[in-house]
From TrEMBL:
Domain of life the protein comes from: Bacteria
Family: Belongs to the glycosyltransferase 20 family. In the C-terminal section; belongs to the trehalose phosphatase family.
Name the UniProt record assigns to this protein: Alpha,alpha-trehalose-phosphate synthase
EC class (word): transferase
Single Gene Ontology MF annotation: phosphatase activity
Keyword Transferase: yes
An annotated GO BP: trehalose biosynthetic process
Keywords: Glycosyltransferase, Transferase
EC number(s) stated in the UniProt entry for this protein: 2.4.1.15
Pathway(s) where this gene product acts: Glycan biosynthesis; trehalose biosynthesis
Catalytic activity: D-glucose 6-phosphate + UDP-alpha-D-glucose = alpha,alpha-trehalose 6-phosphate + UDP + H(+)
Length: 482
């Protein structure tokens, strides 16, 4: 049973995200429990929150359950309840069937429903109220991601004393795409309630600024958006802060003898092929898993790879399983994997080891160490922390990262083998080149990649964001005159 904290406790630092770092996980016999929740957001923010004396406001991942605030692993958790209808309309609907496909360049068609929008507004208000209750006078509230874009404005209206940051973990699309959104003005207005709006890539910040100019006509100067407020102008900073990982933590994990032994065991379990290729993704249509499987299948078909010298491990962690596009994707991927294994596997060598599970960090580090080639072939991705985790784990300066230019990580990880995953021939050539790359070149590239990931880790990312936030908030009207 977790330690309860007092519902009236207030904090100087509050993180607000759709999902808490832990999901409620009840055993079949009714025993309550909590497990780490999926996705890059939690991976990135957990270490920061453990260091700060802050509270984390978010949803516990189950319907119609109210939980009192509690402490988990050094973090104060403030759960926000969602009803079954709200999960369907706000989370599965507006967040993941409207905004998600729209912001990922309409890879899947977005659905627009007015009822979903109403639920989005209602739930954003509930999160804003919970955050306002948890925030001390003058506190910093850092709102995360596309599910909560209206929270900054709602917070500013009720709590002008707060310093408000927002970080968008996913891409922000070009105006030609964004402008489809029937509520495009309200979303921009919601975001502009923040003092600083962070994006993954420079291009995302540029797209946002263009949307502000087109929809509101506000002036933008460099990273600053000038938001008229009465006779005054409020400065909002909108710029990129590429998110990262706890690089040191991953390296430490990978150096552990038990993790290295596990990596060896994984390779043996696969029949010790010459090349182990690895894909690790949430099972999401943005990740380019189909393209990767197609390329791998054709390489086997054409005899450029054979199952005795190359094996693909595909970890696809379950995600948003009640959203139709995700169900269809799972069926397609499992059909493809089944076909390829049927066509090319032998008794001693399986073409594809497909794992529909999430794994703890130790197992991930072992998989990274076991993989000669890491395949990140996203069609569109805010950042992709898997790419950075792979690099951080490879203290042996070996392994090749094949990375999509459509993932945010491509801006920083220039020494990877960059690919356009839509170009199947190009992807196939890159996979073969990665498998055949000489040791010296692998080491040269990996050294450069590691330098970047170590230098700009998640602590730097959050420090950078929070310093910019404090800096900007002190010169805003009202605060400046105090
Ligand atoms: O950043 C992408 C993101 O949607 C995060 O907000 C979230 O934590 C993660 O992916 C997993 O998605 P979900 O919470 O929908 O399972």
């Amino acid at each position: 049973q977790p330690d309860q904290t007092h519902p009236d406790d207030v904090y100087s630092m509050v993180i607000v995200s759709n999902r808490l770092p832990v999901d409620y996980d009840e055993q079949p016999d009714g025993t309550p429990g909590w497990k780490t929740s999926p996705g890059g957001l939690v991976t990135a923010l957990e270490p920061i929150m453990r260091a700060a004396d802050g509270a984390w406001v978010g949803w516990a991942g189950v319907a119609d359950r109210e939980f009192a605030p509690f402490e988990n692993d050094g973090i104060s958790i403030v759960p926000v309840p969602l009803s079954e209808d709200e999960i369907q309309e706000y989370y599965e609907g507006f967040s993941n069937d409207t905004l998600w496909p729209l912001y990922h360049d309409v890879i899947a068609p977005p659905t627009y429903h007015r009822e979903w929008w109403d639920a989005y507004v209602r739930v954003n208000r509930r999160f804003a109220e919970a955050a306002a209750r948890a925030a001390d006078e003058g506190a910093t509230v850092w709102v995360q991601d596309y599910q909560l874009q209206l929270v900054p404005k709602m917070l500013r209206e009720t709590r002008p004393d707060l310093v408000i940051g927002f970080f968008n973990h996913i891409p922000f699309p070009a105006y030609g795409i964004y402008s489809q959104l029937p509520w495009r003005r309200q979303v921009i207005e919601g975001l502009l309630g923040a003092d600083v709006i962070g994006f993954q890539r420079q291009a995302d910040a540029g797209n946002f600024q263009r949307a502000v100019r087109r929809l509101y006509g506000y002036t933008t100067r460099g990273a600053v958006v000038e938001v008229p407020e009465g006779d005054d102008v409020r400065r909002v900073i909108a710029r990129h802060f590429p998110i990262s990982i706890d690089a040191e933590g991953f390296e430490q994990l990978a150096r552990r003898p038990d993790v290295q032994a596990r990596a060896k065991e994984i390779r043996e379990g696969l029949g010790n092929p010459k090349t182990v290729m690895l894909g690790v993704d949430r099972l999401d249509y943005t990740k380019g898993i189909r393209h990767r499987l197609k390329a791998f299948g054709e390489l086997l078909r054409d005899g450029r790879l054979s199952v005795s010298d190359a094996s693909l491990v595909q970890v696809a962690s379950p995600s948003r399983e009640r959203v139709e596009t995700y169900r269809q994707l799972r069926d397609e991927i499992e059909l493809t994997v089944g076909r390829l294994n049927g066509d090319y596997s032998t008794i001693s060598h399986q073409a594809i080891a497909y794992l529909h599970h999430g794994y703890p960090r130790e197992e991930m580090a072992a998989l990274y160490l076991a993989a000669d080639v890491m395949l990140v072939t996203a069609l569109r991705d805010g950042m992709n922390l898997v790419a950075k985790e792979y690099v951080a784990s490879r203290f042996d300066e070996d392994g090749v990262l094949v990375l999509s230019e459509f993932a945010g990580a491509a801006d920083e990880l220039r020494q990877s083998v960059l690919v356009n995953p839509h170009d199947i021939e190009g992807l196939k050539d890159a996979m073969v080149a990665a498998a055949e790359m000489p040791r010296k070149e692998r080491a040269r590239r990996m050294r450069a990649l590691r330098r970047r990931v170590r230098d700009y880790d998640v602590a730097r990312w959050s420090a950078d964001f929070l310093e910019t936030l404090t800096g900007n908030a002190t010169i805003r009207p009202g605060v400046r005159d105090d």
